[in-house]
Design brief:
heterodimer, A: mainly alpha, two-stranded antiparallel ribbon, 12 helices, 2 strands, B: 288 residues, Rossmann fold, 2 domains, globular
Chain lengths: 294, 288
């Protein structure tokens, strides 16, 4: 197994990475993907049923398979936050008092109480996060930042009537996303340069304070570099007579096709099915049915 | 150069892939072999994106070999379990545009960053900063100047001093003269050859500027798409005019003149590296 370099920050940045495979999902209208993404997150948050979340989970996995990006990549993002998630789930299991009322107590010691409901809510939390993170991966794998920008701008266009700066917002989002890999690249470069002069980034991972102290010298040059980038960008835009969104025409015109409508309504169907399952207390019914069998 | 001697740096069958296992993976080095001996300067030339920087980053252990091996004084970098910083201090790496990486407010502190990381005494650090600044031709009083207030040439020399202050045995430079004016370039090359002649030192220099290579190095490696296309004595490598031009490279300007004359049918010998030799050939044309 070849040893990984401590400086390849890009490897750790699997979330938010565009993977151009040209699949069906890639060719969908970004507006549709944006709306569906928002819908998915909404459905995840509002449904409190294991079965409903499983349905959404499977739908996202199906979507990921359709992008033809290796599934493992989507799960690396999840793997990085699994400890964080487990801690959250533990807090949920032990510390949320309203989950104790009228529930079956499974384990009880002094002030700590674990009930069947609190366990289920812990599992729900992990599952919810997993679906959202995988959904975001699905979106970012298949949508380039330009598409994202056009999508946001088109979706917000109706609000321009009430003087909402749709174009400017979309541009800001685009620039900040676009600059992320640049800044990471610069940070990697600076780390390497400082490591070449004996700075220590690899060892002492456990010593948090020392790690922070070692990263502090990165911020000064990184800040200067990002200001320089911003200045260059301003000059480049000015020299091409950028005047803001007003009267600007677009190279890419978005128009929804049959497959977009198809994807949209299929996903709406899946999400409403999930929501229906959740609101119809399907979990309880299934649980009752299973108990009745034994 | 005695070939039986053990090389200071030896690269054996080195391969490297960026972002392996993702759709974005890029093979940047493929079976690269390179040797660097004491008391020599080796040039690396290659078109943009040929893997030069990746190769240089392997020379001081910034990147660990994925396949193949890098040995520093006979010790394998991948097998080295001790403090990698020792290797990085022995092999001083000067990055492309190193002036962008200065981060201390005062010039002297930036030069002292390397020695301070070596846990040397305050007195020793001061001595090294003084020596290093002298070597790059910056007055010691510059140590109290604001880094941001220095000129580009001064900043670059300051960055070089920051590496020299660690007293490395090998200096690895990535495009050291890029974006310097001719005067700045001459100064920098003078500093480098002066440092090398101190004895027991070696330099690896990657550059797009063929004159830099001719002025400094005795041997040249040509890296194209991550593979060593050519290597040998500088004169030998620069005799492959057509091959170099095909690969977006070139020969030194003086040699190019003679190669172009030869192509137009003038009877000149193309065994030319510098202006004196080119002048000799052109003079020969008038006598004929």
């Amino acid at each position: 197994m070849p040893e990984k370099s401590e400086f390849e920050l890009f490897v750790k940045l699997s979330i938010g990475q565009y993977m151009p495979t040209g699949s069906v999902i890639h060719r969908l209208d970004p507006r549709v993907k944006l709306l569906l993404g928002i819908l998915l997150i909404g459905a995840c948050i509002s449904s409190s049923s294991l079965i409903a979340l499983m349905v959404l989970f499977l739908a996202v996995i199906l979507g990921l398979l359709l992008t033809r990006v290796r599934l493992r990549l989507a799960f690396t993002a999840l793997r990085h936050m699994i400890i964080f998630l487990l801690v959250l789930a533990l807090i949920q299991v032990f510390a949320v008092p309203q989950l104790r009322e009228g529930a079956v107590v499974i384990w009880h010691r002094s002030i700590f109480k674990v009930t069947d409901r609190s366990i289920i809510s812990g599992i729900l939390l992990v599952l919810r996060f997993a679906v959202i993170v995988l959904g975001l991966s699905l979106f970012s794998f298949s949508t380039s930042t330009t598409e994202l920008m056009h999508g946001i701008e088109h979706l917000l266009r109706p609000f321009q009537k009430i003087r909402f700066p749709a174009h400017e917002l979309a541009l800001t989002v685009n620039i900040s996303i676009r600059f992320l890999p640049i800044l990471i690249g610069e940070a990697e470069w600076l780390m390497k340069a400082q490591a070449s002069r004996g700075a220590d980034f690899g060892r002492g991972k456990r010593n948090f304070i020392r790690r922070i102290r070692k990263t502090l010298p990165l911020f000064v040059p990184l800040f200067i570099i990002s200001l320089k980038h911003a200045q260059n960008l301003i000059e480049a835009m000015e020299s091409r007579c950028y005047m803001g969104g007003e009267g600007r025409t677009h190279l890419i015109r978005l128009h929804a096709e049959l497959r977009d409508y198809f994807a949209f309504f299929l996903s709406i169907a899946v999400v409403s099915a999930a929501l229906f399952l959740s609101f119809a207390h399907i979990d309880k019914a299934v649980w009752r049915w299973i108990s009745a069998q034994f | 150069m005695i070939l039986s001697e053990m090389p200071v740096i030896e690269v054996k069958n080195l391969s490297h892939t960026y972002l392996p296992g993702t759709p974005l993976e890029v093979v940047s080095l493929k079976n690269v072999n390179l040797q660097l001996f004491k008391n020599e300067t080796v040039g690396i030339i290659g078109p943009a994106g040929s893997g030069k920087s990746t190769l240089l980053h392997h020379l001081n252990g910034l990147l660990r070999p994925m396949h193949g091996d890098v040995q520093i004084k006979g010790i394998s970098v991948s097998g080295w379990s001790g403090d990698i910083r020792v290797m990085r201090q022995k092999i001083g790496l000067v990055f492309q545009n190193p002036e962008n990486q200065l981060f201390k407010q005062y010039a002297g502190d930036d030069v002292a960053f390397g020695p301070r990381n070596m846990n040397l005494s305050q007195k020793e650090v001061r001595k090294r900063v003084r020596n290093a600044m002298k070597m790059v031709g910056l007055p010691f009083s510059y140590k109290d100047r604001l880094t941001a207030g220095l000129s580009l040439g001064e900043k670059r020399r300051l960055a070089l001093a920051g590496v020299l202050a660690m007293e490395p045995q090998v200096l690895v430079l990535d495009e050291p003269t890029a974006s310097l004016d001719p005067e700045g370039r001459r100064e920098l090359l003078g500093i480098l050859s002066g440092w090398r002649s101190e004895g027991e030192k070696a330099i690896v220099i990657a550059s797009h500027n063929m004159e830099d290579i001719v002025d400094l190095s005795s041997r040249v490696y040509v890296l194209v798409s991550g593979k060593i296309l050519l290597h040998g004595a500088t004169r030998e490598v620069f005799s492959h005019y057509d091959l170099l031009v095909q690969n977006s490279l070139s020969v030194p300007a003086a040699a190019e003149v003679v190669f172009k004359l030869a192509r137009r049918g003038y009877s000149v010998s193309t065994d030319v590296l510098n202006i004196e030799e080119a002048a000799r050939e052109i003079k020969g044309l008038f006598h004929a």
